[in-house]
Design a protein that fits this description.
about 60 residues
Length: about 60
């Protein structure tokens, strides 16, 4: 197996790793309840997706 002839400098290693950074997530808002959600997902707060109720949420009774 081939071995490197000499050690890589810290600068060269850092330049190679400079593209490893994370990207920001695309966060939108739910048009029904205006909570932040990821695109193309059902809103976990109200259960709506694309203007339709997909998941029925129970109403909280304050007794």
């Amino acid at each position: 197996m081939a071995q490197p002839k000499r050690r890589w400098s810290k600068r060269r290693t850092g330049m190679r790793r400079s593209t490893w950074q994370l990207e920001n997530k695309n966060v939108g808002t739910c048009p029904h309840c205006h909570e932040p959600i990821l695109p193309h997902t059902v809103c976990s707060n109200c259960g709506y997706y694309n203007g339709k109720e997909v998941i029925a949420k129970k109403a909280v009774n304050e007794d």
